[in-house]
Amino acid sequence: MNKSRSRLFSPRVSSATQQLLISCFLLGSLQSSEVSKTRFTLSIPAPTDSAGGLLVADVDSDGHQDLLISVPGHFAAYSSKGKEIATFKTNLVVGGQSESQGLPGHNGPGLACGDVDLDGKNEIVYLTLDGWLHVLDGKSKKWKASVKPPVPQGASRWELAMLADFQGTGKDQDILLQATNKKGYRTGRYLAAYKIKDLLNGAPALWTTDRFVSCAHNGARLVDLDGDHKDEILGSTIFNWAGKKVVEAVPYRGHMDSVFAADVLPGKKGLEVILLEEGSNHVQILSLDGLVWRKANQGAQGRGREPQNAAIGRFLPGSTEVFVWCRSRNQKHQTPFVFNSKGQITHRYELDKIKPKGWTDSGVEVIHTIDWTGKENQLACAKERHTEGDVGIFEPLTGKFVEHFKEKADRLYVADIQGDWREEVIVLSGKTVTIYQNKAPNPRPHQPRLWENRNYRRLKQCHNYYSP
Ligand SMILES: [Ca+2]
Ligand SMILES: [Ca+2]
Ligand SMILES: [Ca+2]
Ligand SMILES: [Ca+2]
């Protein structure tokens, strides 16, 4: 491995942007609630394919969450009201299919944001195609540091940088770098964990590995599973803060398609990890002690039906039980199925019979669990699959849509950006961003903001198309 080196770096900051800000009330096409729409136009190019994505963080450190948007060659930050904070022209690492191009994969933002130098203000952290990692001040847009970390032999460059806490400080003082093998079917097997301060000073990594088994199409996801305030690293293998493999999926055929973390079993200490197999087509739930359950939706021939995508959440009104909703493989006429927390299938339906009029027969994609109503139970939000299409919010257990937004969505992201702890629906269509907010009365206005949960923050930064 080569020694780290540093150099000066000057981002170009574009002039003021053209913006259109609309804030209005309208009724969703299903007329189920009042929805406000904030709309503005990007001053960076529109996405032309699946490269680049969205991220919510307080970029300018004014106490309000902002939106980061990346496309090849550019990224930009806007306030939740559509005010431009910064635009940058730089070859950040974003891309499409990770198994051929490397990480971060379809819709991966290739950006991270947090206070990495403990000056009380957030920095933007990202990798560029030439192998450098950059740190910018989010508010002043000024360059703070750049470094070219040594790259593992089988990789072409570091492809994904994630802010982490491996020391249990409660802050963002660590970083995880991930890369795929450069030859053959590329998966994110290489990891390097650093104290950020060490990395920027050219000091060695806390640990490295070439044995991480990542999901096939997305990077690692970080979460504190056991409550020791230190991040675990999630894939088909789960590593702890010290780089030790603590648990792994039980044998399966093929690869893992998605990974999520949730407290599926509150009686069992810590969070559980939900993994979706493609090949042997089961859903696995792991705890730090090992397998909790592994189940498939068996067809008439006894063959498991592929879960393909999932949404995990409290989907049953009046209950806090966590359910695992699976979309099903079908290219058309999707038939979602739902497991309860014990691994029993409790719901199945044909999406075609329930979806809104005009919605594609190809079903849904980019499926996020969403705290939309403010009630205890959650919903799912998704876009029309395989098309720049509409966005909807639906009840996962029944498939009933409660909102239908007419869109030509290139990207969909769900996060609390407007300040009410409930989550908004954020859509990028060409150069147009629309933030949909539920203006119906919030039944639980005094809930803590979701961002106070460190795991919410981590999962909202470590995401792509396959594991939103
Ligand atoms: Ca802000
Ligand atoms: Ca800072
Ligand atoms: Ca932990
Ligand atoms: Ca648990």
Tell me what you see in this structure.
There is one protein chain. 4% of the residues lie in helices and 38% in strands. The two termini are 33 Å apart. It has a 5-stranded antiparallel beta sheet, with no helix packed on it. A 5-stranded antiparallel beta sheet has the order 2-8-7-6-5. A hairpin with an 8-residue loop joins strand 35 (411-415) and strand 36. It has helices at residues 98-101, 196-200, 454-461, and strands at residues 5-6, 12-13, 22-27, 34-41, 54-57, 66-71, 74-79, 84-89, 112-114, 123-127, 133-137, 143-148, 160-164, 174-179, 190-195, 207-209, 221-223, 232-234, 237-239, 245-248, 254-262, 272-279, 283-287, 290-295, 297-298, 304-305, 310-313, 323-326, 337-339, 345-348, 364-370, 379-384, 391-394, 401-405, 411-415, 424-429, 432-438. The chain is mainly beta and 468 residues long. The longest helix has 8 residues, at 454-461. The model is unreliable at 1-29 (pLDDT under 50). One calcium ion binds next to loops.
